[in-house]
Amino acid sequence: LHIAILASILCLIIYWLIRDSHRVRNLSGKHVFITDCDTGLGKSLAKWLDKRGFYVIAACATEKGGQELQSCSSLSLKTVNLNLADSNSIARAVAFVTKETAGKGLFGLVSNAEGTALVAPTDWLRIEDFHLALDARLLGLIEITLKLLPLLKKAEGRVVNLINAKGLMAFVGGGYSLSKWGMEAFSDTLRIEMQHFGVKVSIVEHSFLKAVVNSDVFERDLLRLWNRLTPEIRESYGEKYFVE
Description:
This is DR9C7 reductase. The protein has one domain (27-213): 3-Layer(aba) Sandwich (Rossmann fold). The chain has a 6-stranded parallel sheet with strand order 3-2-1-4-5-6, sandwiched between helices. The radius of gyration is 22 Å and the shape is globular. Helix content is 53%, strand content 13%. The protein contains 9 helices and 6 strands; from the N terminus they run H-E-H-E-H-E-H-E-H-E-H-E-H-H-H. The N and C termini lie far apart (61 Å). It is of the alpha/beta class.
């Protein structure tokens, strides 16, 4: 019994030593770029990394979101407006990050994109409804990752893709789940390819987060989709289905 206890203590000590050896040292001068920092997980992470001493560049969709974040952060935290569905906006954000890193490269890219999405049966939707989800949550994140790879290679940095685990359960139609599965596949491929350059790629599948669900917006969108359906599709589902 004594030998087992001593072995357990030794294993615990070895574990802590190995874990500590992987901690990031000398945080000064390390830049981390985070998307979707207006609210929620992105905003919380930006503030936490800022307190830890990183140079945080936080991308916000609105000026108000950026101002609120700066008001509760240090002077070293910078914000930039970013619309992930707009290539021109992405190009401006990349130029801002390049200027801020000043030749040092980018230590970390944290990709995070949530927001609302249309939730409805698949044959209630049109291709543009899928674009609303995929353009920002998938294609936009891929585009900004590709454009920041040279900076990540220079710093031998890391990419961390935050993916809501509920998006991996495809129980409803629309582009939300597609975007999450797509980011999983993109991350897995990129991880293998970037090993040669010393760039690490990780996926964080976070759980359900506390959020305010606006039922009025949800019902409004559902009603709009229902009203634009052809009579044949509405009849196939029936009024009772829609109400329930």
